[in-house]
């Protein structure tokens, strides 16, 4: 029998909602006779593994009305889970056709996952077997966005203009490094993996000398098509010959290690863009490597990369 001084042990698993906390408002509005005297509250402890998921869901629900609150909640969730997302600043880029792509932040690595959430770090294998729509949602749930076609082109173009990204050390001579692509592996690798093949160097520098990984190998990236795409970023029309998708690459398809840039003359409507290359793409891999897949498909060779504005 419990005495008055013995704590009452509760079976949390068999209980629903019950009074556990006493909540008062710091503005005094929960005092007797005030506006929020009879308000009810549901309290979450950050040590509760379910609380972080609930907070992330709440951030998604409130982000349009309360964007600052949503950002704060996401920061708490990701900090509490030990996430340290790594981004690269991509400077403003003017593409050869005159299109200006504003500066933005791009994931230094493809996204991996932890407890179902997107993470940007070099320690885990990229998140694959995730379809285009779910990749967009994973980016959004993290407070980010899936990389767009113009953003991908901006990075690829900057890469081809930096001597450090060429095997010869000089722009236009030799090849642009292509990352993991020659087929000696059977799956995508975590960011810290290094190939013994010199031409499979995984990083490139953008115009400000910051390093970005796997833009041309290891795993393809889903891309939101903001050039030919519809409101969901799915290809909605044939590629115009003046489209940045067609005109930005400074060399012909499969020349100088830039990858397969051809669209094959086919009609890609209804597909989603994928870019870069995977561990076994061979000379199809490259910073301008261009392909497509059905947006509802889950493919081992396709992952995704997050971006966010400055």
Q: Report the structural category.
A: alpha+beta
Care to count the β-strands? 14
Distance between the termini: 62 Å
Oligomerization = single chain
Shape: elongated
CATH class descriptor of the largest domain: Alpha Beta
The residue fraction in helices comes out at: 10-25%
CATH architecture of the largest domain: Alpha-Beta Complex
Which fold name corresponds to the CATH topology of the largest domain? paralog of FGE (formylglycine-generating enzyme)
If you had to describe this structure to a student in words, what would you say it looks like?
- The chain has about 300 residues and is α+β, with helices and mostly antiparallel strands.
- The protein folds into 2 domains: about 10-80, no CATH class; about 85-310, paralog of FGE (formylglycine-generating enzyme) (Alpha-Beta Complex).
- It contains 5 helices and 14 strands.
- It has helices at about 50-60, 65-80, 130-140, 150-160, 245; strands at about 85-90, 95, 100, 105, 110-115, 115-120, 145, 205, 210-215, 220-225, 270-275, 290-295, 300-305, 305-310.
- Strands 1-4-14-7 form a 4-stranded antiparallel β-sheet.
- α1 packs antiparallel against α2.
- The longest helix is centred in the first third of the chain and has 14 residues, at about 50-60.
- The protein is elongated and about 75 Å long.
- The termini are far apart.
- The model has no long low-confidence stretch (mean pLDDT about 90).
Overview in brief:
This protein has helices at residues 49-62, 67-80, 132-141, 149-160, 244-247, and strands spanning 87-90, 93-94, 100-101, 104-107, 112-114, 117-119, 145-146, 203-205, 211-213, 220-223, 272-275, 290-293, 302-303, 306-308. It is an alpha+beta fold and 310 residues long.
């Amino acid at each position: 029998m419990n005495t008055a001084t013995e704590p009452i042990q509760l079976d949390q698993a068999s209980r629903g909602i019950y009074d556990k906390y006493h909540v008062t408002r710091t503005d005094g509005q929960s005092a007797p006779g005030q506006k929020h005297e009879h308000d009810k509250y549901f309290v979450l402890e950050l040590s509760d593994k379910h609380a972080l998921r609930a907070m992330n869901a709440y951030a998604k629900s409130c982000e349009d009305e309360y964007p600052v609150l949503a950002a704060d909640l996401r920061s708490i969730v990701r900090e509490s889970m030990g996430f340290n997302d790594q981004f690269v600043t991509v400077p403003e880029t003017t593409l050869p056709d005159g299109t200006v792509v504003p500066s933005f932040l791009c994931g230094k690595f493809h996204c991996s996952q932890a407890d179902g959430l997107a993470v940007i770090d070099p320690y885990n294998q990229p998140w694959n077997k995730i379809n285009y729509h779910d990749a967009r949602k994973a980016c959004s749930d993290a407070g980010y966005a899936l990389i767009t076609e113009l953003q991908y082109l901006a990075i690829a173009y900057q890469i081809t203009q930096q001597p450090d990204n060429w095997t010869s050390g000089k722009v236009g001579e030799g090849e642009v490094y292509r990352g993991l692509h020659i087929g000696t592996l059977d799956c995508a690798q975590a960011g810290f993996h290094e190939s013994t093949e010199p031409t499979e160097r995984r990083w490139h520098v953008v115009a400000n000398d910051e390093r970005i990984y796997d833009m041309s190998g290891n795993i393809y990236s889903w891309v939101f098509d903001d050039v030919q795409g519809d409101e969901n970023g799915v290809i909605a029309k044939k590629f115009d010959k003046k489209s940045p998708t067609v005109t930005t690459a400074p060399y012909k398809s499969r020349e100088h290690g830039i990858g397969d840039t051809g669209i094959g003359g086919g009609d890609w409507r209804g597909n989603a863009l994928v870019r870069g290359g995977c561990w076994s793409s061979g000379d199809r891999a490259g910073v301008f490597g261009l392909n497509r897949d059905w947006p509802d498909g889950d493919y081992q060779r396709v992952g995704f990369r997050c971006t966010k504005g400055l």
